[in-house]
């Protein structure tokens, strides 16, 4: 009892072949889009690799690029097969490869599913990398004369301006590090010396933030220094002031940006999986309808197309027995060897 | 003596028609590109409308949008005509329209040229508009509580951050205006009151700039206050310090930005104009060669195509005469003192066909 049997006459077969050809070319375009998305994601990760401590994993974008190229290739081949399917002379050369092609498409769908799951799971690693990277970034902000960290200040300033955030968790992270280099501190000044002596590690700490934390939407000029001292500024209450500097932490801001990208790519891959499955089903119908034609030369006849030759349960049982026989043929027969020696 | 006469066989006529069909469709695409460039320029100007004083700079993007739309329509019609020109029977449908179409397109290309030239001449007006606009914006920077100017501070800050510039001509422009609102100044402090009294207009002036002037490339934390006072900061000399604040003035930066856009758009319009002119020339040749084929009667024969039937001077003279006679027919004849009942012979020359012989008067049957 074939699974999901459909009767086809010549017109229906032609329509199926044409529709399937267009679907395959749509899938090629989706494959190109996936490739482009992979490149875009890779570029975005590279742009901010400094705040991720330069050890971010490029596994996901590399996989996306690979899968995009594979999708293009597979679907272009499928389109060619559909284009040739209505001409019996051309179709014969593809006939032998089609079973392998369908199995390959199945495997490719499984790969797509794995990549989509990776897109969602890798967001955790991005979160952890961002936390570590931003903490180091804030620590090395002042080291504009140390090779390898010269541009950390610029990168962090640009990130804070672009993503409208301040510090790692919030602006108070800047209070715990010395972000002014010793080159610009007047060591002969008593105030400076007091501040350096006021904490165990001898760091110049103050309740100030860099200018890149300033919010342009604030109605008053930016208050960067003596943030927690209400009396240092006229008409200022640091507990209720929300618009002066950015209140969001950069880790949250960057993470929501990257998780947005990764989730969108994951959903896009799921859509591609659905499209590929439809392509595979259509191709199976086309192949079976062409095979069950009573006379291959006479085009104008009825034929049947189906998804599976037997029912679902029987097909699975057949598959299991095939796998078991394969396994048994690989096992060495233990009873035969003693007889072989005599 | 025809201008630039070319012989056309049937195949070359067909090839010309097909080629012109493709070129017309490419021209539709370029017309759409012109339209979108006009929209883009309009959006860019409106984005920074707060920083520009009202001047007549909107006419350039509006002209581009109009030219783009008309170019699309004209070339769409041209494509349809060329598609039908392969078949002489279908060409008869268009016979009357094609010559006015060519003349109209020829004058339209002049509009396109004018549009391209306007892109280059907008520079002066834009500079004036930006100069006044930026000065006003900086003056109203502190008025974040005045309705209509609440967001000027944010706009100016975002401008200085994004375009990496400070002030109108340079950062010293900020020293000459009060950019801190009185709401945030403690009037009870002696220093504040002294500063107010230190100048004629009673403004709180200081040698400080807003945070948006800070240069992110600076190796040291930004020095915003007491910029000209070297002793206020350790290891600081304001005359040699280049990396602390943005050095360029915003007017110059914005002007460069818009000039760059306009030059690119102007170049695109010029290239489109040349392309349109060449397509028009092809259509003219096609029209004249098909006209001659119809005159000869045999659709498969060779025919001549030309740009103008007679030389340039003769064509200009005949056209002027036609226009003059049209004008004379329209004038009211004042010799009869305005009385319509007096029969005055018409001064219009009646044209009785190519040999100009009036028809014989028919005799009444007796």
Outline of this structure?
Chain A is mostly helical.
Number of strands of chain A: 2
- Spatial extent as radius of gyration of chain B: 34 Å
What topology, given as strand order, has the largest sheet of chain A?
Answer: 1-2
Q: What structural class results from the helix and strand content of chain A?
A: mainly alpha
Largest interface in this structure = A-B, 30 and 29 residues
Percentage of residues in strands of chain B: under 5%
Would you tell me the overall average pLDDT of chain A?
Answer: 89
Strand content of chain A: under 5%
Low-confidence region ranges of chain A: 335-342
Q: Cα-atom Rg of chain A, whole angstroms? A: 32 Å
Element pattern of chain B in H and E: EHHHHHHEH
* Overall average pLDDT of chain B: 86
Cα distance, first to last residue of chain A? 52 Å
Structure overview:
The complex is a heterodimer of chains A (342) and B (366). By secondary structure, chain A is an all-alpha fold. Chain A has helices spanning 10-47, 59-84, 88-95, 98-121, 123-139, 152-163, 190-197, 250-291, 312-330, 336-341, and strands spanning 6-8, 303-305. In chain A, strands 1-2 form a two-stranded antiparallel ribbon. The longest helix of chain A has 42 residues, at 250-291. By secondary structure, chain B is mainly α. Chain B is 55% helix and 2% strand. Chain B has seven helices and two strands; from the N terminus they run βααααααβα. Chain B has a two-stranded antiparallel ribbon with strand order 1-2. Chain B is elongated, with a radius of gyration of 34 Å. The model of chain B has no long low-confidence stretch (mean pLDDT 86). The chains are: A mainly alpha (342), B mainly alpha (366).
């Amino acid at each position: 009892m074939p699974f999901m049997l459909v009767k086809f006459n010549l017109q229906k077969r032609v329509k199926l072949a044409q529709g399937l050809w267009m679907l395959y070319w749509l899938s090629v375009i989706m494959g190109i889009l996936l490739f482009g998305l992979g490149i875009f994601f890779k570029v975005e990760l590279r742009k901010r690799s400094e705040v991720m401590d330069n050890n971010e994993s490029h596994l996901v974008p590399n996989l996306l690029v690979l899968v995009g190229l594979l999708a293009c290739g597979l679907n272009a081949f499928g389109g060619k097969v559909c284009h040739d399917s209505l001409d019996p002379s051309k179709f014969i050369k593809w006939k032998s490869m089609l079973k392998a092609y369908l199995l390959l498409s199945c495997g490719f769908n499984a790969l797509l599913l794995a990549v989509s799951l990776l897109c969602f799971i890798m967001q955790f690693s991005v979160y952890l990398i961002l936390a570590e990277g931003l903490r180091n970034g804030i620590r090395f902000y002042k080291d504009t004369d140390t090779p390898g960290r010269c541009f950390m200040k610029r990168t962090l300033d640009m990130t804070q301006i672009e993503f409208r955030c301040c510090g790692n968790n919030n602006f108070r992270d800047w209070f715990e590090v010395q972000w002014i280099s010793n080159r610009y501190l007047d060591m002969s000044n008593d105030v400076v010396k007091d501040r350096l002596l006021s904490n165990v590690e001898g760091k110049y700490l103050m309740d100030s933030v860099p200018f890149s934390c300033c919010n342009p939407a604030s109605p008053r000029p930016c208050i960067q220094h003596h943030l927690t001292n209400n009396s240092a500024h006229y008409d200022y209450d640091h507990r209720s002031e929300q618009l002066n500097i950015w209140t969001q932490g950069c880790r949250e801001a960057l993470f929501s940006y990257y998780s947005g990208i990764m989730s969108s790519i994951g959903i896009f891959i799921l859509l591609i999986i659905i499209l590929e499955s439809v392509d595979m089903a259509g191709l199976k119908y086309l192949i079976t309808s062409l095979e069950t034609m009573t006379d291959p030369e006479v085009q104008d006849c009825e034929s049947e197309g189906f998804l599976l030759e037997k029912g679902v349960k029987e097909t699975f049982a057949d598959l299991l027995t095939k796998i078991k026989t394969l396994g048994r043929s690989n096992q060495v027969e233990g009873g035969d060897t003693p007889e072989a020696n005599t | 003596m025809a201008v630039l006469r070319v012989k056309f066989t049937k195949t070359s006529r067909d090839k010309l028609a097909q080629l012109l069909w493709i070129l017309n469709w490419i021209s539709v695409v370029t017309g759409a590109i012109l339209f979108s460039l006009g929209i883009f320029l309009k959006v860019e100007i409106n984005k920074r409308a707060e920083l520009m004083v009202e001047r007549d700079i909107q006419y350039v993007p509006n002209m581009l949008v109009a030219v783009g739309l008309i170019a699309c329509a004209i070339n769409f019609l041209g494509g349809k005509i060329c598609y039908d020109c392969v078949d002489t029977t279908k060409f008869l449908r268009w016979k009357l329209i094609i010559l006015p179409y060519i003349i109209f397109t020829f004058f339209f290309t002049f509009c396109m040229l004018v549009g391209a030239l306007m892109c280059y001449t907008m520079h002066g007006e834009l500079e004036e508009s930006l100069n006044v606009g930026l000065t006003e914006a900086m003056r109203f920077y502190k008025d974040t509580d005045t309705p209509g100017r609440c967001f000027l501070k944010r706009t100016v800050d975002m401008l200085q951050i994004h375009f990496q510039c400070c002030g109108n001509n340079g950062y010293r422009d900020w020293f000459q205006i009060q950019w801190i609102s009185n709401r945030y100044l403690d009037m009870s402090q002696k220093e504040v009151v002294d500063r107010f009294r230190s100048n004629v207009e009673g403004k709180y002036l200081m040698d400080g700039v807003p945070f948006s002037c800070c240069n992110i490339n600076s190796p040291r934390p930004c020095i915003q206050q007491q910029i000209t006072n070297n002793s206020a900061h350790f290891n600081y000399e304001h005359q040699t310090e280049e990396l602390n604040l943005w050095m360029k003035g915003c007017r110059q930066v914005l002007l460069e930005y818009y000039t760059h856009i306009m030059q690119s758009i102007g170049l695109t319009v010029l290239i489109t104009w040349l392309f349109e002119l060449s397509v028009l020339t092809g259509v003219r040749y096609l029209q004249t060669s098909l006209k001659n084929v119809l005159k000869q009667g045999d659709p498969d024969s060779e025919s001549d195509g030309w740009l103008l039937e007679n030389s340039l001077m003769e064509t200009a003279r005949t056209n002027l005469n036609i226009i003059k006679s049209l004008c004379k027919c329209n004038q009211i004849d004042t010799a009869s003192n305005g009385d319509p009942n007096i029969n005055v012979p018409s001064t219009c020359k009646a044209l009785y066909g190519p040999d100009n012989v009036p028809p014989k008067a028919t005799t009444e049957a007796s």
